[in-house]
Each structure stands twice: as C-alpha cells, then as structure tokens.
Amino acid sequence: MLGFAVLVSLVLSVRPRGSRPGRAGGEVAETLLREATGIRDRMRFRDFAYDESRDRQGSLRLRAAEAIAFSENGEDFFRLKDVTVETRGAADTPTLALSAPRAELNQGSRAVRVFDGVTLRGEGLTIRSEALRYRPEDRTFASEGPVTAVRGRLVGGAERGEVSTGDGRVRLDGHVRFRGRDETGRVVEMASPELVFGRDGSLRAAGGVLVKTEDFLLRSETFSRDAEAPGDRLRAAGAAELLLLPGEGRLGALAVARGDVLDVKRDAGGLPERIALESTAGDSRVDLAPDGRAGARRVLTRRADALLTGGRISEVSFPEPFRAAESVGPAEGGGPRELSSRSARVTFAPEGRGFDVLYLEGDVVGVDGPRARITASRGTVRGGDETAVFTGEPGKPATWADARGAVRAQNLQYARKEGRADASGEVFASYSGDGRGALPGAEAGTPYFSESERLTVFPEARRAVLSGNVKAWQRENVLRCATLTLDAGSLRAEGDVRASLKRRAAPGSKAPDETVTASGDLLTHHEADRTVRVEGRAVLVSGGFQLSADVTDVRLGAERTAEYAEARGTVVIEDRLQHRRGEGKRATWRSQTDVVTLEGEPARAVDGSGNRLAGAVLTFRQGRSRVDVESAPGVGTEGVFRPEGRS
User: Fold this and answer.
1) Is residue 23 part of a domain?
2) Is 255 helix (H, G, I), strand (E, B) or coil?
3) Residue 617 belongs to some domain of the structure
4) How many domains are there within the chain?
5) Which of 35, 93, 302, 555 could form a disulfide with 564 if both were Cys (CB 3.0 to 4.6 A apart)?
6) Span 31-53, mean pLDDT?
7) 54 inside domain
8) pLDDT at 251
9) Residue 336: what pLDDT?
C-alpha cells in the first residue's frame, strides 16, 4: 500500500490529464498496453507531463502522448509514448529539445531513457540515436549506441555521444566523422576518436585528428577551435602536420609544415590572419615541393610566425635560429643551396607576386652547394629589384668564397639585374688566377690578392674595379694605386701608381733576379701584347738607373719579366751609382745588357764632377762610368770636362 501511495503521489505531481485510470480501461494508452505485456500494477493515462527545476542548474520538461505506470524489481517506472523533452541550463542559456517514440522515467532516480529513434536539437547541433539515457546527477543525455549529428551544413557520426544540459557541452566518441561545408562555405572533412562541441562555439578533438578542406590537410594529436572576435582561433597540437595544396591565391607548390603546435587566427570570413608553427623540442619543419622556378625547399626552425592579408601571406618571421635549403639540379651544378641565421623575417609583395624583402640577423651563412659560401653578421635580400646586402661587424667581416676566389669586407652587395657585386670597408680579395696573370709581369695561373676600400665586380663582363688605397700582389709583383680596373686580359691603374716587375739577371750572371719598379699617374697593361704603359710623371727604376718621362712603355718577355722599356716626352735619366744625370726626348732601356740610350736635340748629360756631354744619342751602361756620344745630321756633339778637384 505504501508503494501504491507513492505512485499515486508521483502521478499527481506530474499532473496527468484526462480520465481517471480506473475508468479509462482499454480506451487510454492502448498502444503502450499492447507493448507492456506481463507488466503488473499498471496505471494508464494520456497527456503525461513532468517538470523538474533546480536552483542555478536549470530545468527539465518532459511531455508524452500516452503513459503507463508500473513497478519492476522494486522500482517504479513510467513507460511513455511520443515523447518530447526540453531542458534549459542556467539563465539565458539555449534550450535542448528532444523527441522520441518511446521513453521510460524512473520515478526514484528521475533517470530517463528515450529510445526507438531519438532526435535531439540544440547547442547548434541535431543528434540522432537509437536510444539516449538522461543522467539527472550531471544533467547529461548519453547515447546507448552510435549517433549521427548535424551541425549547420556538416553531417557526421560517432560510436557514442552525450550532451550536457548544464554547460551545453556535446561530446562524441569513437570513430567520429564529419563532412560538409563550414560557416564560410568551404568543404571540410574531419575525423577523430573524440570530439567535443562547446556552447560558446568552441571545438575540441583529441586522440589523433584529421582535418581536410579544399586548401589543406591537417593531422595532429589534438585540435581545437575557439571564438576570438571578430573571428576564431584554430590550434593543432602534438605532432601537427599541415599539408597546403597549391592553387590560385595560394602557394605555387605543394607545402608541408610540421611542428609540435600549429596556431591559426582567422578573421570573420574564415580567412587566416596569423599562422604560428612551434616546436618545444627540436625544430619545426616546412617543406615546399619543386615548381617551375625553384627546386625542393626546406626550412627548419623552432618557431615561425606568418601574417596574412586577405588570406595571402604578407610576412613571415623566424624569431629563433633557422636553416633553409633548396635542391639544385645537375644543370645548375648540383648540391643544395643553404641559408641560416639566428633570426630572420621575410615580407611578401602584394597579390602574391613573390617575396619582397628577406632580413637575416646574426651568424648568417649562405652556401651554394660546392660552388660558393657567404658569411655575415646580418643580411638583406630584396626580391623586387633582386639585390642582396650582407654586412659584418668590427673584427668579424662579411666573407664570400667560391672556387675561383674569396672576398672579405665590412659590406658585401649584389645586384642581379645590374650584374654587379660590391664590397666596401677594409676589403681583402683573393683570386685563383684562372690561368691568367692578372698583374703586369705576374706568372700566369698564380693566385693574386688585393686590399682596398671598395671592390666592384661585374662577373659576366669579367671586370673588377678596386678603389681607395689599393694594393694588389701576385707573388713578388706588387701594384699600388688609388683605382684599379681589371678586365679580361687588361689592367688600368690610376692615381699615385706604383708597380713592381720582375727582371731576369743577364745570361751567365750569378746575380739573383731583380725587381723593376714603375710609378706614375696612370698604368695600363695588355696581356695579349705583353706591354705596360705608364703615363703622367712616369718613373722607372732598375738597379741604379731611374728613368723619368711623360710616358714610358715596358715590354715583357715570354716569362713576363721586364725586357725592354721606352720613355718619351721630357725624359730624365739618373744613374745614382755613377752620380750622373741625363735629359732628352726619348730613352730606351734593355734589361739584359742594362744599357740606357738617351736621344735628344741634343741629349745632355752631367756627372757629379760637373763634366757635361751633349749629342744626338747618349748611351749609358750601368756600373760603368763610360758614356758613348753620337751625333746626327743637324745635331753635333759637345763635351765639357773639369779637372779633378776643380769645380
């Protein structure tokens, strides 16, 4: 009787409408009665209503077209037909609406089981399952088997699902799959062992996530989406791998990004505004497939941040050490091109027209396979005008080296369109020689070196210009000047020129080879005809002879040693060993005999004792006091001699 009284009390609390059970007989709840064969202690009626409300936890409202009450295993139940359930959480939270053909309500625990095909709508989702159970202790509906779910234009399914009416959390477990179009209309597909939707529009997936769209494919251990006005933020963590597909408005080649964490901030239209890739242990990695302009490329760094405008990349920064590499085909010499620095930043031209500027900071190293290597403290590369600038710091200059030579300077610059390279600030350069003698008199194929304030090289034209306190040397051949221009097979030195040339000793002489020095305002050299010309206060010194003139030409022998010289203009010869001096209009010097011939109208000579000679031709022999005098038509000879001891 006590149980019956409790049952009657509960029935009264749910406010059944219609006739009294005893009088309804077979006219009430006929469908449920046929289904309830074997159930005892029945009470049957129509228009069942049950309401439950908890302070600060929300309410539950259950309605059914028919109901029967019964007891089983000491518990009291209602069996319900054509059921609707509405739940509401705390104030101002959305309503969950559930409908099903059948339900059972446990009067004691207030647990509800709905079955025979359940549809639940709310929290932006529609969920369908064969059966759901309502747990009043945590106000959660949980499925008893597979569920299907619809969110906007996305359709999916899972092995299990549950909905919390309190916080609005929707959880799907076991082979979760979603496919369709997202809020922006893009096709998207998602797979995960576990997926949780939040009332605030958030999403959490875990256990190994796969996301596919028209633009990319993403894999990670976890994935989340959170609203962040005016758009949202996507975060993939745990072995995140992003594959970006090429296409219009996107990258020109397939790209793959890998890292511990991938973070994407999107605008209201679903376009990415910022992408961050980071790894806590080891490096993140970005790989780009070959395209028509470049080979396969790779970037390694712990962190990379990209800013986007209108969905296009506008800037990428690498705040920590990074390494980049590009493969090079056999036609370009093979071997990878590599670039590294402590940090870097690259900006991109509008409308996806390639990169604009690349900034490199700290310990910059660039390698072009086995062909070239550059090091610097910082560097700037501009894609639009195709220029590059690399700078050093005090005590640590920038360097460039390839198979033919090397350059060390405070600043290195390269302008591809102009076909030139510049170095400035304490420039030191070395060159292999390339089978040629770069300096006058230098042996072919020997390396040569230079120091200057500036160096400009035009590689295609095989031309180099050095300026500012220039010093160049090739073995014992040394050249100093203000400006030095080297062309293929020729040389031009300007401004306070001083050059040294080798001079072979005379045949049969045991004396070592000597050095001939030439100085003047301008020196030119042509390797093909083995000539050296010195102009403007030209001075040639060999042993005790010094030959000064307006212009002096030096002919080099087969071994590129000074063989013959001819001076013209106002010519002055000084024999410092014999203390004599001569003046004329033309002079010749032969290295093998060490003989100087002076011509004039007349040529004149004087020695330290005041003895004077004049004639058309004067011949001086180094180391001998004798001077030969010759006359010519119209030019006689003259001699004035002073006795010893007389002045």
Assistant:
1) yes
2) strand
3) no
4) 1
5) 555
6) 75
7) yes
8) 61
9) 81
